[in-house]
Amino acid sequence: MKFLLASSNEHKAIELNELLKSSGLEIIAAPEKFDVIEDGTSFQENAYKKAFGYAQKFKTATVADDSGLVIPARPDILGIYSARYADHTSDYSEKNRLLLEDIKELSGADRAAYFACYLCFYKSAEEVFFFEGRVHGVIAHELKGDGGFGYDPIFLPDGLDGKSLAELHDWKMLNSHRAKASESAVKFFQGQN
Description:
31% of the residues lie in helices and 24% in strands. The chain is globular and about 50 Å long. The chain has five helices and six strands; from the N terminus they run βαβαβαβββαα.
């Protein structure tokens, strides 16, 4: 079964195909970028808006993801706006530094955070499926590692001796928020076959 990715990002399509390889699904990057207004109030709503928008435009089954970093002690930043945080710059090293400055007053349990991912598979108005994945940890006090992307250098997953996601490529591919959402999707779609 083929799903059009609600993104023209080839790298994201490759990653999802790797994560979903045992499901019998094939993810294809959209042939062109299509702007969808992400004005939902949750990751789930925004994933749906993207999947629905691309399904309407390209007249095919689609998959979209919406994800971000959540710091419960600071619900006013990040979350569904993670990609738009410090939107005057596209440099994530700078975004990470600005975020660390923005939360410097947080300590201990207040630095707890999690990455969340919602995948929305849109086959038709009657067949819409959501899968969520999370990975919990804390926000570091400095950037660590040069792998990964986005907020990976400041996120320390629970139970990994203070290593950041930017230092844990192999672990991330198996245990990230997107990997967990994909694992739930694989189990569901394998049951459909």
